Amino acid sequence: MKRAEAGEAGSWPVHDQVVPAGSSSSRVIVHVDLDCFYAQVEMISNPELKSKPLGVQQKYLVVTCNYEARKLGVKKLMNVRDAKEKCPQLVLVNGEDLTRYREMSYKVTELLEEFSPVVERLGFDENFVDLTEMVEKRLEQLQSDEPSALTVSGHVYGNQPINLHDILHIRLLIGSQIAAEMREAMYNQLGLTGCAGVASNKLLAKLASGIFKPNQQTLLLPESSQDLIHSLNHIKEMPGIGYKTTKRLEALGISSVRDLQTFSSKILEKELGISVAQRIQKLSFGEDNSPVTPSGPPQSFSEEDSFKKCSSEVEAKNKIEELLASLLNRVCQDGRKPHTIRLIIRRYSSEKHYSRESRQCPIPSHIIQKLGIGNYDVMTPMVDVLMKLFRNMVNVKMPFHLTLLSVCFCNLKALNTAKKGTIDYYLTPSLSTTSRSGKHSFKMKDTHMEDF
DNA sequence: TGGGGTTAT
DNA sequence: ATAACCC
């Protein structure tokens, strides 16, 4: 399989004929990061907004804003009240419906996939692309008769000089040229601006893309990678080290990148587990062997809504119906069929940080069949399933107070490509009622709602 | 903190 | 089913 080869070539450097002959194991990775993505989409929808300070609002938060607004002191995830106080002229648009953002997001990913199919999405506004193969091809084509062909595009981190005799420099330089072409294509074809970082792995490419901020790109050469990671003021700025790990590291007296580099590996493994410990300690040295994993189509679809209070079953049912209706439209567009449905809630709790509970079950096969077509036939039975999940989580005879409801479709399967005689035929749960009798029970640990 | 996503356990 | 991570 092509995917497996690409992954192995990327993640398992040494001894391996999978790595193209003559090349080192070193990769060329680009991280592409759109500028204030939601705000850009809104300005494309309504060009009159381009000249104004603009914020995108979800509930009482300004989740992102354009650079006009940033100049006037508005920050991402700022309270609407604070933002208006800072910037009374701020124009706000509601961004709770992600449909147009999601569509534009996939257009960007598809555009990048035309350069190289190995594109990994990170959220709606970031993509990694493994340019290693593309760079190799350009190197082969590049005969020494064009001297001006070897000039870097964009910034070089630390203004480090490029050594044209160093093959690693040359490869990264060509990566910077491809990155510039990608940004040009995004602007010409989609009207979007963004940043790019080019480096030898995902961590460094991501850090590099954030150096020069709107609509610029930066190349990181290997000799400067230590400078880059030590320019981080705190370990929490290291991608891959999140809120929880940061707290645990701080409890160990680790706060800077150098603290983490020099901390005892043995003790770190005991505290965080061998997997996390080894991974983040490598990150602290700027090492990241994780491959760019092609995202492909989404693994799940979900819709959620948060609110101050939901305390009755009827109220919950109405909200769930809304979420489900939107989801059915999306799943219909996608073409594949979800085989699992999940309901997620968040209970009110005065000061406790963030905890969600969920229940999931297989979608009854008779509902799955009707998914592609008439959307209204499936509403009622699906709501019934969801309300059973709801009552499984929430004791409706007791008072309750929810602040979020979410419905998720996952376990998506392409419809019936299984051919008789293939492995797939015997492993794929039937989508038609007539073939292959019996229960395909597998090891589904899901709650089967029919059992209740 | 919103309204999403992913992978690992 | 939850917990961690990312935006």
From TrEMBL:
Protein keywords: DNA damage, DNA repair, DNA replication, DNA synthesis, DNA-binding, DNA-directed DNA polymerase, Magnesium, Manganese, Metal-binding, Mutator protein, Nucleotidyltransferase, Nucleus, Schiff base, Transferase, Ubl conjugation
Annotated localization: Nucleus
Catalytic reactions of this protein: DNA(n) + a 2'-deoxyribonucleoside 5'-triphosphate = DNA(n+1) + diphosphate
Any single Gene Ontology cellular-component annotation: nucleus
Cofactor list: Mn(2+); Mg(2+)
Enzymatic class: transferase
Family of this protein: Belongs to the DNA polymerase type-Y family.
Known partners and oligomeric status: Interacts with POLH. Interacts with REV1. Interacts with ubiquitin.
Known function: Error-prone DNA polymerase specifically involved in DNA repair. Plays an important role in translesion synthesis, where the normal high-fidelity DNA polymerases cannot proceed and DNA synthesis stalls. Favors Hoogsteen base-pairing in the active site. Inserts the correct base with high-fidelity opposite an adenosine template. Exhibits low fidelity and efficiency opposite a thymidine template, where it will preferentially insert guanosine. May play a role in hypermutation of immunoglobulin genes. Forms a Schiff base with 5'-deoxyribose phosphate at abasic sites, but may not have lyase activity.
Protein name, entry field: DNA polymerase iota
Organism name: Physeter macrocephalus
